[in-house]
Amino acid sequence: MASTEDSAFLFYSSSMASLVSHLSKKLKTFLLITLLTTVVVATSEKQCRNFKSIISFGDSITDTGNLLRLSNPNKLPQSAFPPYGETFFHTPTGRFSNGRLIVDFIAEFLRLPYVPPYFGSPNGSFDKGVNFAVAGATALEQSFLESRGIHYAYTNVSLGVQLRRFKQSLPNLCGSPSDCREMIGDALIIVGEIGGNDYNYGLLVEKNIEEIKELVPLVISTISSVITELVHMGGRTIMVPTDLPIGCWPSFLTQYQTSNKEEYNPLTGCLNWLNEFVEHHNKELQAELNRLQKLYPHVTILYADYYNALLHIFQEPARFGFMNRPLSACCGTGGPYNFNNASQCGTKGVDSCIDPSKFVHWDGFHLTESAYGWVAMGLLEGPYTLPAFDWSCPGFDIKNRSRTSSGRQYSSSSR
């Protein structure tokens, strides 16, 4: 029979074991909560940034006036003449549209000034943003494209040249290396759209699609290298747009017009094979961005799906306020798509439509302000940016930001 002392000892041991087990569970729970909280906070810190500026690179989809300022006054681009700029700015600004571009709508949403072009005004004020995008720019160098037999009259300000000019400008833009790193880290950096012209020029000189496909890994590698450099310079949020559905472009619909109905999408009227090529580029781009995101987990790399944001408009144009089958250019002349490569918008005798807001296409290669606005809203509020922007950040007032100055709002009824 156990003694009273033995019973007391057993009771004490049992109680201590129970207490230790209880404390152990509590400690595990505490550590788990702490770990999850840390992960959430770290993720929030990565995505929750109140952008202080926009730094952009690219081509005519993003150019707010660089090509105009780089051009010979005796040989200005078509964007220097009416009716370009007629809708919003009421004068040509060098933008290849009747008004604002995607980057302009993003700036409005972030309550930042329109991003000024760098070229032609290197000593200007760029505290809130700077734009190095040049209409006609390619991802690959001009000399390389020419070595592949792609000879076309375009700018030689490639993506690499734009990045070099950005790096050279840093002492004037932000001063000390630490200040520059902070500026770059606080900016929304937009790399593109870029690469589309590499393919467009090949198509325009009638290279076959297999030859053009050979450029895809080279274009993706170039974009990846620029992103990597920007990360090493301090970039923390980098948005990389896809290529656009050029199978729906009046220029290419005119160039590759055929009586074979099987080559056209029955819903949109776009050329299937061209859009399938773009989808191939975009798939490779997304795979590379995913690789970079794993390599740099402290950076937010955003896949901006311009392609599907715009394709949705072609699939359901009425929902976005456009005419049915909106494949013709607002500004142009001739043919079923109102496009003639020899007589383009901005040249004498070429008129624009009465109501550009009903048109997706502006001039055969570029979109109207209305179309760009919907694409921008699809990126900022809709499902077309991966990962999605987080506008719930402390200090970021989302109220009234969901509408552009033209009153459009992206909602489920627009999807």
TrEMBL record:
Keywords: Glycoprotein, Hydrolase, Signal. GO terms for molecular function: hydrolase activity, acting on ester bonds. This is GDSL esterase/lipase At1g28580. CDD domains: SGNH_plant_lipase_like (cd01837). It comes from the Eukaryota. The gene is LOC108841770. InterPro entries: GDSL, SGNH_hydro_sf, SGNH_plant_lipase-like. It comes from Raphanus sativus. Belongs to the 'GDSL' lipolytic enzyme family.
